[in-house]
Design a protein that fits this description.
Deoxynucleoside kinase; alpha/beta; globular; about 220 residues; DCK/DGK; binds adenosine-5'-diphosphate; Rossmann fold; binds the ligand Nc1ncnc2c1ncn2[C@H]1C[C@H](O)[C@@H](COP(=O)(O)O)O1; 10 helices
Amino acid sequence: MNLREKYGIPANAVVTIAGTVGVGKSTMTKALAEALQFRTSFEKVDTNPYLDKFYEDFEKWSFHLQVYFLAERFKEQKRIFEYGGGFIQDRSIYEDTGIFAKMHYDKGTMNPTDYETYTNLFDAMVMTPYFPHPDLLVYLEGPVDDIIGRIQERGRAMEQQTPHAYWYEMHERYENWINNFNACPVLRLNINDYDLMANPEQVEGIVERIAYMMEQTLHLRK
Ligand SMILES: Nc1ncnc2c1ncn2[C@@H]1O[C@H](COP(=O)(O)OP(=O)(O)O)[C@@H](O)[C@H]1O
Ligand SMILES: Nc1ncnc2c1ncn2[C@H]1C[C@H](O)[C@@H](COP(=O)(O)O)O1
């Protein structure tokens, strides 16, 4: 019996992992997918044709990058829908608009017309049958300096060269964003409370909390 069966998590569940850059989403996605025998939906960073350019010149590439991410995430959403669920998704589509696009618009590195075009496109795309909300959003949080340390260690040059002020601002925005998020149920996990790299067996406790949360929200919906 795998952990999904042990804790009664539906085989068609969709769990999305959210949190700031470097917090540990991909690591969590892999661990949960293995534990639950679910498929994964990852952000593809290495093949993204805009990401490097974006970090070099936010103003020039913000719009291109957001449209690219939106298309990629929508394709993934469609794939999840076609398989009938059973997925762990690395980053939610809500963060693209609620964190990244908004942050660059507010900072003046995405112009107002582009921002309006992007948000119109986003609203039109997510309001389709291909866009069921996830059953649960697992939100990873932790001290910003620890997270910056992980970004430095991971070694993506474009992120290492980005001023720390960018990560501080993003971290603060994430806090505000999650406190107001209500598109689906949320399970908050602090990165100081588990370490899946040193102690992979801790995934079971996380699965248990996911199952409990899902059961509670199903009861509430009945
Ligand atoms: N528990 C942990 N302790 C230390 N480093 C970690 C831990 N979990 C993840 N990392 C490392 O932190 C970096 C960022 O993790 P990752 O899962 O890629 O984050 P994200 O997908 O949120 O950007 C990676 O180099 C990863 O190996
Ligand atoms: N919507 C986005 N806008 C700008 N940058 C983004 C967006 N989504 C992801 N990113 C960046 C942030 C990181 O540099 C990489 C991958 O993110 P990660 O949190 O490490 O999975 O893409």
